[in-house]
Amino acid sequence: MKYIIMDIETDGLLDKVTKIYCLCYAEVENNKVKIGYLTDNDSIRDYIKANKDNTFIGHNVCKYDNLVLQKLLGVKIEKLWDTLALSWYLFEEKKSHSLEEWGKILKVKKVKIDNWLSQPENDYIVRCLVDVNINTRLWFYFQKCLNDLYEHNQQRIDSICNYLSFKLNCIATQTLNPIKFNETLCKDSLAELEIMYKTSLDILNSAMGDKYAKILKTKPTKCYKQDGELTRLGEKWFQELRERNLPVSTTEIKEEPNAGSSHQLKQWLFDLGWQPDEFKQGANGEVPQIQKPFGAGLSESVKVLMQSNPELQELKSFFKIKHRIGIFKNFLNNNQNGYVTADIAGIARTLRFKHREPVVNLPKVTAFYGKQIRDMLICEPDEVIVGIDICALEDSTKQHFIYKYDTDYVQRLQQPGFDPHLDLGIDAHLVTLEEANWYKAFDKQTMHDEIDKYLDVQKRRFIAKCANFSLTYGAGPDKVAAVTKQPLSLAKRLHTAYWKKNISIKKVANSLKTKRIGKKIWIFSPVSNFWLNTKSEKDYFSTLNQSTGSFIFDCWLKFFQEKTANTPVRLQYHDELMLICKEGQEKQMVQYAKEAIQKVNKALKLNVEIKVDASIGKSYGEAH
C-alpha cells in the first residue's frame, strides 16, 4: 500500500485563506520514502487526481487541508487518514495533540513563521517540509502502535483509521455548513440575565458584608497637626471619605464586597464551616470548587452548608444565572456574520466527540433559559429544522449486551409500557407499585386536578432515572447520592436494588477480551471490532456501552448521508442530529432517517431493535 503523508502552507485560516503556497509530501511505499513539493495550483490539483487511489495522511487534514483544497482548487482527497484523530484515539490522555508537541517528542523542531503574507516563499516550503517530516515519523510511530494493538491485522487497522476519518469529515461538513444564529434573541436574553445577576449579586454581597473585601487604604496615623489643623495626608483622607460617602469614624477603606469574586466567596464559605467535596486540579494542587462541572449545579457540600445558613440559598440562582450568561456570551463570541458552527475539541476514549463552545452542554428546553438558548439556532423563512434522535440509545446497547446473560429481563424491559426507572424506584422503596401504575395511567386532560400528585411521582421517577444511568457506569452509593441529590441511605437502597437486577452487566464486563500495552488497558468491542482504551476495570462496561452507542450513531449517520448529501447535517450530539431543509422536504428526511436505522439493524444484527424519533420546527428548541 502506498501512503502519502502531506501538508500544505497557506496565507490564512479557512474563512480567510486565498492562497496555497505549497503542498509538500512524503510518498511511503515498500519501506522507501520519496520527498517532494509543489507550488503551483495546477500541479497540486493534478497530483491529487493522479493519486486518487492512494491514501493521503495529514495532521488535522480533514478539517483544514482538504477543505482548503476544495475551496481554492475545487479538488477533494477521498482516501484520507488523520493523525490528529489517531493521536486522540491512541493517546487521549495527552494535553496537547499538536504537530508541534509531537515534534518535540520526536526531536524535530517546527519552523517558525513570523509573517504569513510577505515572507519569501522558500520559508513556507521549508516549514511545510519539516511538518511532513514530523508527521511521517509520527505515522511510523502510530503504525507500530496500531500493529501492536491489532496484531498486524491490516483490515482492522484500515477500519479504525477510516472510521476516525469519517467522524472528522462529518465535522468538516458542519464547518462548511454553519447554523443561522438569532443574535437579537441572544442579546435580549443576555441583557435580562445581567439584570438578574446584579440583583442576585447585591443580595449575596449584603449577606456577606465587606469582611473579605481587600483593604485599599487605612487611616493615616497622623491626621492633625499640633495646632489642630489637618495634615496634608489628613486632608486627602477625609476628602476621600466625603467622596465615598463614608462616616468620619472610618479607619479602613475597602473595595466593595463582591460575591462574584471566587476568593471572597470561598473565604466566606470557609468561615461558615465549608468542607469542600468537589475539586479541580490546579497548578499548585487541588482547588476547591463551589459548583459541579459543566453547570450541573452547586456542590453537595455547599448544599449541606445551606441548611444551617439560609442566606446562602441565593447561590442557587446566582450560579445558574452566571452559567447561562456564559452560554449567551459564548454564542456572541463565536458569532461569524450571523452564524455559529458546531465544532469539536477532540475525541474521547469512548470515541464520542468532545464538543466545543458554543454548541456544547446546552440546557434542556425545559430548563432555566433553555428554550431561549436552543431557540437561538434558527433557519431561513422558507426552511425548517429537523431534529432526529436515536431512542434510548445507551439503554438499547445495554440490553443488547446483557441479553445473552439475562434474556428474560431484557424481554421484560421491552414490554410495552415497561418503565425501568419506575421499576428501580419500586425495588428501592422510592415509589410504590400502586403509584407507578397510577402514574403510567395518568391523563392530563381528565385528571388535571391530581397534577400535584403526578408531579410528585414524576420527581421521584427522575431520581431513579439519574440513579439508573450513573449505576450503569459503575457509580457507588456516594456518587449516586451526589448525582441524585438524595440522602446516602436512599442511594444505598438504589444501589442494592440496581445490582440485584443488573448483575449481568458485570458478567458482560468479565467476558470482554482485554490487553495491556505498557500502562494502558484496552478492551475489545465485539460490535465495532475496535480496541478501546479504558482507565480501569470498573470502566469496562461504560466504555463498551458508550462506544457502541457512538458506533451505532455513526453507522446510522453514514447510511443517512448517502440519501441526504445535498442536505448536510449541521449538528450532531451523542444520539441526535440536526439538519435544515426546505419546507416540504421534512417528511422525506425523517423517512430517510428511518430507512437508515433499519439498515443499521440489518447490518449489526443486535439483540434489540434500534429506533429513531423526529421533531420539526423553526428553531432547535422547537425541533428537539
Structural summary, described in words:
With 624 residues, this protein is an alpha+beta fold. The chain is built from 22 helices and 21 strands. The strands form seven sheets. The protein has a five-stranded mixed β-sheet. Strands 19-20-15-21 form a four-stranded antiparallel β-sheet. A hairpin with a 5-residue loop joins β12 (344-347) and β13. α4 crosses α5 and α17 packs antiparallel against α18. The protein is globular and about 95 Å long. The relative contact order is 0.09. The mean pLDDT is 94.
Write the layout of secondary structure elements.
Layout: E1 3-10, E2 20-29, E3 32-38, H1 41-50, E4 55-58, H2 61-73, E5 80-82, H3 83-90, H4 99-105, H5 121-150, H6 154-176, E6 179-181, H7 183-208, E7 215-218, H8 232-243, E8 252-254, H9 262-271, E9 279-282, E10 285-288, H10 300-308, H11 314-333, E11 339-340, E12 344-347, E13 353-355, H12 370-374, E14 377-378, E15 383-390, H13 393-402, H14 407-413, H15 420-427, H16 433-440, H17 451-472, H18 477-484, H19 488-501, H20 503-511, E16 514-517, E17 520-524, E18 531-534, H21 540-563, E19 569-573, E20 576-582, H22 586-604, E21 612-617
Parallel strand pairs: 1-4, 4-5
Antiparallel strand pairs: 1-2, 2-3, 6-11, 6-14, 7-8, 9-10, 12-13, 15-20, 15-21, 16-17, 17-18, 19-20
Helix pairs in contact: 2-6, 3-5, 4-5, 7-11, 13-21, 15-17, 17-18, 17-19, 18-19, 21-22
